[in-house]
Design brief:
The complex is a heterotrimer of chains A (about 450), B (about 290) and C (about 270). By secondary structure, chain A is α/β, with parallel strands linked by helices. Chain A has 19 helices and twelve strands. In chain A, helix 18 runs antiparallel to helix 19. Chain B has two domains: about 1-55, no CATH class; about 65-285, MetI-like (MetI-like fold, Orthogonal Bundle), CATH 1.10.3720.10. The relative contact order of chain C is 0.15. Chain C has two domains: about 5-50, no CATH class; about 55-265, Orthogonal Bundle (MetI-like fold). Chain C is flat, with a radius of gyration of 23 Å. Classes of the chains: A alpha/beta (about 450), B mainly alpha (about 290), C mainly alpha (about 270). At the A-C interface, helix 1, helix 2, strand 2, helix 3 and helix 12 of A face helix 2, helix 4, helix 6, helix 10 and helix 12 of C.
Chain lengths: ~450, ~290, ~270
Amino acid sequence: MKKYKKILAVLLGSAMAVSMAACGGSGGSSDSSSDDSSSGDKVSITFWHAMGGVNGEATQKLVDDFNASQDEIEVHAEYQGTYDDTITKLKAAMQSGNMPDVCQMYDVGTKFMVDSGYIVPVEDMFETTGYDKSTVMDVITSYYSVEGKQYSMPFNVSTPMLYYNKDVFEKAGLDPDTPPTTYEEVMEYSKQIVESGAAPVGYSQAIYGWFFEQQLAGLGAYYGNNENGRAGDVTAVEFDQNGAGLKVFQLWKDLMDSGYCENYGTTTADTQTAFFSGQVGMIIESTAILKNAIDSSSFEVGTGYLPKLEENPDGGVIIGGASLWMMDTQDDVKKDAAWKFIEYTTTPEAQAAWSMETGYFAINPAAYETEDMKAYIEENPNFTTAIDQLQESPVNNYTAGVLSGVQTESRLIFNEIIPELYDGNITPEEGVASLADQVNKAIENYNASVGK
Amino acid sequence: MNQRHKIFKTIEPYLYLVPALVFFALFVFWPFGKTLRLSFAMTTPLGEVAKYVGIDNYIQIFSDKEFLKSLLISFEFAAMMVVFSMVIGFVLAIVSNEKIRGKSLFRTVYALPMAISAAAASVVFMFIFHSSLGILNKTLGTTIGWLTDPKWALISVTIVSVWMNIGMNYIYLTAALQGVPQELYESAAMEGAGFFQKHKNVTIPCISPTLFFLLIINVINALQAYAQFKMMTQGGPSNSTNVIVYEIYQEAFINSRFGVACAESIVLFVILIILTALQFKLEKKVTY
Amino acid sequence: MKHSKKYIAVMTFLNIVFAVIILIPILYCFNVSMMDMKEIYSGSFWPSGLSLENYKKALELAPFFTFIKNSLIVSIATTAGQVITGALAAYAFSMMKFRGKNILFMIMLATMMIPSQAIIIANYLTIAQWGLKDTYAALILPNVAAAFAVFNMRQAFLQLPMEIKEAADIDGCTNFKFFYKVALPLIKPSIGALGIYVFLQSWNYYLWPLLVTDTVNMRTVQIGLGMLQGAESTDFRPVMAGSMIILLPSIIAFIAGQKQLISGLTSGSVKG
């Protein structure tokens, strides 16, 4: 009996402690980075990122280097899961007032951040700090700019390009030093690869909405209206009106119907696996996987520009990846510290180190002039392909890419339509119409929910 | 004294419930109330109420063919998953309950998949299922796109899910088998019952409360599974694996339509309540 | 009961076959963790040699020992919490008579039907409001009680013959004494099964620990696995190595729980 009372007392006690905590916790909505902000005289700021694996290591090193480079600011880098996890967590943090000072956010989250009301556009800091906007290539900043104003600082930047298996090319009697530049050539080469028995599959592209957007940009066409949302909010898609969507859908269909291409689904890693294992002669993938591709393949990897559908002077590639955002923490000291860190990430030395460790682009052209970087590029000639392709890309609102609050969803919708197209359940025309219809509905809903 | 004792007797049962109820109130009922409220609202991308829209969200999801299809897929998945993981778990529990060598090793092996997270399992099976490189196609001599063909994707994810779920069924059934009196088997043997008859007539009736428990739990678990879908197929190809909980996850965390996601959650909640109530009715009818 | 040698041989053979089939994915996971970069893509099942390099890499990328410690604390506390709160409630639901019993049981059971996605953000806001973010309490509290545990133990108690309880009542044994002296030991196998299940479930949590912890020293093993994966492409070998690292404590937990499962053999001869 005594024991019974004792245990019950413990249980009730713990329950009460919980309810007391519930009542006494109204003051808890302060800044999360306050945990050890008073370590000495240093300003302590928190930086959330989504970089795992070797990129996570490089991010930590970048932060360590910054912390060592000065003694006023201490940045705490904290990994927050995948990109999707990070945005989920940031949304929750915004509601509870526990935001970090700097947050990495993927490209498709840009519009959400702009509309959120919880951020400080980086451009606001340019004037007071004397930062030169041209430090970063404008072909890169254009993605993170709305009506000419830069909202965030590009961090990890990549574009798609063509990867091909030089051994397979040789076996198929193709020149291993001249990759195809158009999709027409891709199809010819694929045919030759398969028919010569050099590889079971000629070409493959993962079902990934990003590639669709890239192919539209290559045609010099808009995805969404209002110049891809750069001159005002997107209210509807435009790819169904300008004919470019149909051209791209027709391409996907033709490639699959040729019998020389294979579909490995929406998980890009599956297409990579097929390529690394030598099953596929050519794939398109992000420039950021170059290092992994070379390390994983037992053949010589070649790279080329993203193939073109048609020649178009306005066409080019869109950058992808993620950028750094300054959160509006209502604390000027921290905001200044956050900016100093962000500014540091753009220095040539930081960019050169970052680029060599991760395979992402250096966003500051001066980084390519550093000795280390020069030596690195010399050793990795494939890296030049990526840089040249980006530099040759014209700066305009086609290649800036679409700025829309529903782009993650749009890509998922795309993912669901393409298998239907492959299976012949729908025609390319129907596919485009269905995609446009569903994305338009999502846009309408989004605009209503943010009061636009 | 007697009076006090009487009062204590009346309130005593509730005292046993207090600890659990306190936690449920704080971490389930309270947030669930919020869910219910949000299901009648249009929400901002942050998840806050933009405006109340009455039953619009419900009208929307029930007029959405994709949602109804995802319900159907969920049931299909749940049916396969419940049957296979319970039957396999049962078979494993029976064969490893015999007096054989290495019994505890087998027991550990059978429960081991439970210890593998969905994230790790998905990566492993991604390799196993890979259409050109995977050991499954190599072993079978086929070229099936296990995860890329709409005809196969749901089956493939079910295989992974069953593999992950066998362990739970296995340990509960093993635990239940310990409670079956040996004498019953002996008398069954004396009556000349064979292997299958023995288990049909003795084992199953004896462990029926556990079977019932597992049935309910499996149905709920199956209808709430989403991690493996997120990792392996993202609901595709062509929405062929878009189960309702993945749909909820996607609406809430990817598409930022919390209102719709909450309405879908409420619908799933009601469905599960009805299914569970039906199973309880069934239990009363068939309990031995 | 004696079985023929043939019967035992057949059963042993079946066990071996089943064990192999179930082990293949885990074995594959282990094999990949031993491979070098190019080997994974060569399509071979076995590694060419044993190398711990990927384990070193995994430990370099994520502090797994810290994560394992955190996960152990969280999983053990969660398991203890669910067994205690569950056993108490289950006992009332199965062995006692009181008003509103069925409706209360239904309400508790209903908590299982709520998809976790629907309440996770609201719970995050609660934890943040209480100022508990980045603490063990945040990781443990929401899972201290679970309908699953209540339901599980209720079924176990119901399997006990009512006569024992009646005899105890006549002897003047108090409810609580009966509960922990008689009833609990009798359902030990169920507690063992429940313990294993809850422990492993908690071990595998990902989204909740990610939301309520911010700093690396409070994080749990599944987030560690996440830290090994890249955004555009992943070297899968450290991921597999990490999976093997975090598998070990689970196996130990299982072996510990298994003792409870088996102990029922000796104490379970009450019925019949």
